[in-house]
Amino acid sequence: MRLMVLPKSIQNAIEALLGSAGESDPALLRAVFERTRSGVGEIPHFELRELVERIHSRPWTVSDEDFNRLRQAGYSEDQIFELTLVAATGAGVRRFEAGLRALEAAGAEETRSPASGQSVEYLEE
User: Fold this and answer.
1) Global pTM value
2) DSSP 23
């Protein structure tokens, strides 16, 4: 999957989120973000990996049980919040980039109608 150039305001928000001092290891925050943004990288702990995969591919299945497992594994409330926020942000950026790629593809598919000489735009279903 090709990563898109993001608007500066989104880039700044991501850097602020990943660069802020918090309870979580910055390397772990970046790994979680990249996993949900691009599907690349490994998440070291099973309980966290399970939550990140849910947020990445099926966020509607996240439940209180996921957070309880993280608490039982020793994660603090602040860490759970930070990691969940970073995972959701990465997944949101992935979906935003998919929209940008679709718009780019639609622009590339714009053709001129030979009969009318008018511009015609279409998307394949």
Assistant:
1) 0.79
2) S
Q: Where are the beta strands (DSSP E) in the chain?
A: 111-112, 119-120
Residue where the block lists tokens 């943004």? 37
Using alpha carbons, select from 89, 74, 14 the residue that is nearest to residue 44.
Answer: 74
* CA 106, 108, 110, 113 torsion-angle sign: negative
Encode pLDDT of 50-80 as tens digits.
999 999 989 999 999 999 999 999 999 999 9
Strand partners, 120: 111
Assigned token pair, 108: 């590339």
Looking at the DSSP bridge assignments, the partners of residue 119 are 112
Q: For the chain, what's the residue count?
A: 125
Residue 121's φ and ψ, nearest 5 degrees, are -115, 145
What are the tens digits of pLDDT across the range 79-92?
999 999 999 999 99
Q: Which residues, in sequence order, are bridge partners of residue 111? A: 120
